[in-house]
Amino acid sequence: MTARTRSGRWKALAARPHTDRGAGSVEVAVLAVVVLMLVFTIIQVGLFYHARKVAQSAARQGVDAGRQYGSSPGDGVAQARDFLTKFGGSVRGASVTSSGSTAEEIHITVTGHVATLVPGLELTVTQDAHGPIERWTNP
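Given the sequence above, the corresponding structure tokens read:
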């Protein structure tokens, strides 16, 4: 008799509809996609801010070199490019200009593209710095 009741229970359980079978797997798959997107977004934001700081540092180095007594805006551009050659791996295709410089002030602009994790996504970073050119004046 016990064998019949056991098999009767299994038949009753097997006859019930199981509507939520595999729901856990689907939830994990959706959650994994969301978590991966969040992680990639955080990494991409970090890459953007790093490239921005590198471009700002290159512009600042260029201004510091170009504002010294006896130097020119071309010296500042050369120093900024040298800085990007050494440390600018995160700023791809960088261009450095000294447009906007005057006889009294130097202005260096660094523009480049940020390395991205998403194919086809183009992020551009532009940073500039300016400062007065040192000059000798008689009192």
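The mean pLDDT is 86. Try to locate this feature in the token string yourself.
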